[in-house]
Amino acid sequence: MSISQAVEAAGDGSGSEFRRGVTSCAPVLFGTIPYALVLGAQATQKGLSTVELSMMTGLNFAGGSEFAAIQLWTSPPHIVLIVAITFLVNSRHLLMGAALAPFLRDLPRRKVFPALFFLCDESWALGLADARQRAAAGITPAFSPRYYMGAALAMYLTWVGFTTLGAVLGPMLGHVETFGFDMAFPAVFLVLMRGMWTSMAAARPWLVSLVVAALFYLFVPGAWYVAAGAVSGLIAAWLMAGDA
């Protein structure tokens, strides 16, 4: 949808903005389904029940940390370790929330808190990109809560629904990684990055973050590469801000 169509949609009522969010999220949803099935299947292989998995994905709603938790799951589980890794992997949400903060500051808390609960990589990327486009076009307010919730709820329901389906079908599917489903996870992020691309100069912090995260992944045990990549990218963006 073009920005001019977005302007028209904004005046058509709340339903139009919500549908616009769902429509914008639809291509991402197709990439989400395979690795949602992978997570569900892996969870059953680790001994989690379908109900336990549905509660985890519904209450946590952060795919990266859920994959990490499943990989670390034992019987009995090491709760402290899993909680620490979950916090570490989800630490990127601090930066994601900070990026959205300028667009959320004028909203009442009854709208901000649900928006932050449904915050994930995909809904954040779509919501932020849309807010920037609306701001550039002079649309006020720049952030459309109904557009964002359309995208976020579509992602939430798809994630919880298909991880649950993966848990149900897990015994029949076996090791779904053999079908290449796990490649859907990085593919979705590449598509999101392409949508946020502006120039090579603006992408330099991404490269710094990638290199640092890769080095930490290779040489430092654990999930420290997530925090290292996020912090190094943030520092690089600050240092290069004057050159972009």
TrEMBL record:
The keyword Transport applies. The keyword tRNA-binding does not apply. Its main location: membrane. It is a multi-pass membrane protein. It is found in: Cell membrane. One of its GO terms (biological process) is L-valine transmembrane transport. It comes from the Bacteria. The chain crosses the membrane at residues 21-41, 153-173, 179-197, 206-239. GO terms for cellular component: plasma membrane. Keywords: Cell membrane, Membrane, Transmembrane, Transmembrane helix, Transport. Belongs to the AzlC family. This is 4-azaleucine resistance transporter AzlC. It comes from Rhizobium loti (Mesorhizobium loti). The lineage of its organism: Bacteria, Pseudomonadati, Pseudomonadota, Alphaproteobacteria, Hyphomicrobiales.
